[in-house]
Amino acid sequence: xxxxxxxxxxxxxxxxxxxxxxxxxxxxxxxxxxxxxxxxxxxxxxxxxxxxxxxxxxxxxxxxxxxxxxxxxxxxxxxxxxxxxxxxxxxxxxxxxxxxxxxxxxxxxxxxxxxxxxxxxxxxxxxxxxxxxxxxxxxxxxxxxxxxxxxxxxxxxxxxxxxxxxxxxxxxxxxxxxxxxxxxxxxxxxxxxxxxxxxxxxx
Length: 203
Prior knowledge:
By secondary structure, the chain is α+β, with helices and mostly antiparallel strands. Helices cover 37% and strands 35% of the residues.
């Protein structure tokens, strides 16, 4: 599935792009993610924890920048992980682009998410909603960090909490139930108004 987000910041484009290439800074904005020191090829060991209902998935793998183009200020980050047992896998491909926006920048993020195994059995709709919220939280965190002086790297800024699929599903279901109730309420009010109008006409 593909997820997209973007935001504007006051940071000049070249500086914003430079900060985005720091994977340790970016990883701090991904809920439930941990990242280690890079190897000689620039690939980082990483771990992401996600709880979906009663199940918790811990994906161990690697993440790195596979493409970068300073001329267009674009970069492609790929992360792959496998849960213990080997049946559950996840792959994230994030393309980031920084473009001028007035005196500042606009950061565009396109995330392709591929999940296989038990988590995928929760259904594409639920996974898509969870994924969208995760990307939104990560983008908001990155926006705050880039807007801070020198990318305000570290401890002063709050890190996002690990994503719980159960709370996300509850939010999604609650939202959909609320929409249904409002629609039913609207129809009920319309019916009541019609009956009242008919009664007034009869009188």
